[in-house]
Specification:
By secondary structure, this protein is α/β, with parallel strands linked by helices. It has one domain: 3-Layer(aba) Sandwich (Rossmann fold), CATH 3.40.50.620. It contains eight helices and five strands; from the N terminus they run H-E-H-E-H-E-H-H-E-H-E-H-H. A five-stranded parallel sheet has the order 3-2-1-4-5, with helices on both faces. The longest helix is centred in the N-terminal third of the chain and has 25 residues. The radius of gyration is 17 Å and the shape is globular. The protein starts with a helix and ends in a 6-residue tail after the last helix.
């Protein structure tokens, strides 16, 4: 039976027993962050987690990095104008080391993955290692939940992303560096639902954001697609 991950997210939010628990939201770029952030901001104390060593080339990485920091700055400025006591959206950037991506997707072992379409095994491995890193950071820094903007895009496989989140929750993958008692729970999402992707397009225009026309890795760059 197909799972409605958007409904699952709403049920998790309804079940929150504290005001604005801490959420680490992994983000791949500014445009995808828009609708996702505004969807959860009412319920969580949000920190955006920018960890994307898959992005190629280096200049593209820094362009996306600078764009998301500028977007967060504008959001915080707007929040403070509406309410001087409003909590700021925080953002953290982790080290950009493309070799981590190469090691995660293991193209040298499976060269056929270099030419497969988006949403395949290469992408699944990329989702997995970034979500594991997000979970490690969330657990090490006192977050209650972690999630990712990767479920916003129709070019991403939200079922695969949420299955990885479930496996992390159930300690099937990624728990080597996690101490007991520090667990952050995975927040199931399907951010493209409720016009999420369309909203992201509108927000991108509103905030005058740079929208890339490929996912980010060197393999997706070779087969670019329109926005």
């Amino acid at each position: 039976m197909k799972i409605d991950f958007n409904k699952k997210m709403e049920e998790m939010i309804e079940g929150l027993n504290s005001n604005h628990p801490k959420l680490l939201l992994h983000a791949c770029c500014a445009p995808c962050s828009t609708a996702c952030l505004f969807r959860v901001l009412e319920y969580f104390d949000v920190t955006i987690y920018f960890y994307n060593p898959n992005i190629y080339p280096e200049a593209e990485y820094f362009r996306r990095r600078d764009e998301i920091f500028e977007f967060v700055r504008k959001v915080n400025e707007s929040l403070l104008q509406k309410d001087s006591s409003a909590a700021k959206v925080k953002i953290v950037e982790r080290e950009y080391n493309p070799s981590e991506y190469d090691n995660a997707v293991r193209i040298n072992e499976n060269p056929e993955l270099a030419t497969e379409p988006e949403r395949g095994e290469r992408c699944r491995r990329c989702y997995e290692f970034r979500l594991i890193k997000a979970h490690e950071y969330a657990c090490s820094n006192g977050f209650d939940f972690f999630a990712t903007t990767l479920t916003l895009s129709p070019y991403k496989d939200a079922t695969k992303v949420n299955e990885i989140g479930r496996q992390i929750d159930e300690e099937i993958i990624g728990f080597e560096k996690i101490e007991k008692g520090t667990k952050a729970k995975y927040l199931y999402t399907d951010f493209k639902k409720k016009n999420g992707y369309l909203n992201s397009l509108n927000y991108s225009k509103e905030y005058n954001l740079y929208r890339q026309n490929y996912c980010g890795c060197k393999y997706s760059l070779e087969n670019t697609r329109p926005n």
